[in-house]
Amino acid sequence: MAKHLSAEIDIAAPPERVWADLTDLRAYPEWNPFIVRAEGDVVRGARLSLRMQPVGGRALTLRPRLLAADPPRELRWLGRLVLPGLMDAEHAFRLEPSGAGTRLVQEETFRGVLVPVVARSLDRGTLPAFEAMNRALRERVERSLAQG
Known about the structure:
This protein is an alpha+beta fold. It contains three helices and eight strands. The chain has helices at 15-22, 28-31, 115-147; strands spanning 2-11, 35-39, 49-52, 60-62, 65-70, 74-80, 88-98, 101-111. α1 (15-22) crosses α3 (115-147). It is globular and about 50 Å long.
């Protein structure tokens, strides 16, 4: 079984500016309500360490591998819960030029035997966390542009 979540937002900044904040992993604790800690190099094939905090859920540290790091268009990784096939999650951020700004699409596809068991909690905790992160990124990028 598979479960797909997606949240998008428009940001009044060019994709290069959004990409700069999205890939500044060290700054995540300052602004990101979903990925509250992030470490690693943003290069294809690298392994990241991400501390994720779903809304109303327990924080979880994952060590996904980057499948794509294509500035300023796509950041994508694959994370696994313990063993392949138990619950695999492919997470992506796509940055699409939109008018004078950027449309940010954050999405994740979950696959594995545990997906039916956790599907409702993904809707209740993970999707709202995507939306909160998207809003926080927009606020950070637009505020820094306004400050010059």
